[in-house]
Amino acid sequence: MSKLAVLDDLLDLYYQLNYHKNPEIFQRLQDVQAWQKQRMQRTHAKQFAEKHNLLMAEYFINRLYGGPDFDALAQQIARLSKYAHKAEKLIPDNAIKTGTSGVELAILAVQLDEQVAMQLLQDYHPYEKLTDEMMRITYLKLNQGEGRLKQLDLLDQLGQSLDKYMRSFVVYAAFKMCKGAALKYNFNIMYEFMQDGFLAMKPLKSAEKFVKDFTAAERQIIGKVHAGDPLPFA
Asked: Domain DUF8198: where (predicted)?
């Protein structure tokens, strides 16, 4: 079986999300994602502001947490199955696994945020500006703690994989060799998704440390929400 087959399952899950067919959910999802990004930038302001962390912080915010071009990326991933045999010859196994983990995280983030968006539509006016209190109440009502913790566990695993596999000169050289083929067959968005990850890692001594610092703070917030803290995002 193709090593890329797992991507087909992830895309099936992605295209089953409700927002694809419902503009109202889509709009509220965008509101939730914008709130999430602003909240994360506040929560991790000190970590994100460190010079060597700037690119990885941007990668987290714009790629792993609901990037604006994920639909276009998903379309390119769906086409990849036609070229799976060639792709597996060009891309090292560990790069495929790590890239797949990044896609899984991005889809899980959208899935969880869509649940929030749909609950908000039930409880509030669709154009009401989101507040921390609205989000706190909605998180509690949905009881997403387990799903959010799974998201952070996957993120920790990705951090380990980035350090273990993606710092290899051989892997990066093989990846750079794929650029021509990626452009030729119109996989430029997918290539950029992975390239941004490589570039974000360069200034870091350890991607795993960056991720662990990030997830530790996020777990504290999840704990506060479900413990009933009235100001978990402060």
From this structure: 17-232
The two three-digit tokens of residue 71, written as one number: 């639909």
Q: Provide the mean pLDDT of the chain.
A: 88
Site of tokens 């996957």: 154
Query: What pLDDT, on the 0 to 100 scale, is given for residue 66?
Result: 63
Residue 98 buriedness (CB in 10 A; 0-12 / 13-18 / 19+): buried
- Which DSSP symbol is given to 91? S
Specify the residue for token string 């009933």. Answer: 228
Dihedral sign, Cα of residue 17, residue 22, residue 25, residue 26: positive
Cα–Cα distance, 210 to 207 (Å, whole number): 5
Query: What is the pTM for the complete model shown?
Result: 0.89
| DSSP-derived 3-state class of residue 160 | helix
Percent of the chain with pLDDT over 70: 90
- Domain spans, the chain: 5-226
| Sign for the pseudo-dihedral over CA of 137, 37, 71, 178 | negative
Q: Residue 223 has what pLDDT?
A: 97
The burial of 77, by beta-carbon neighbours within 10 Å (0-12 exposed, 13-18 middle, 19 or more buried), is given as buried
Token couple for 128: 């009401």
Provide the Cα torsion 217, 107, 84, 198; round to 10°.
-30
Q: DSSP code of 204?
A: -
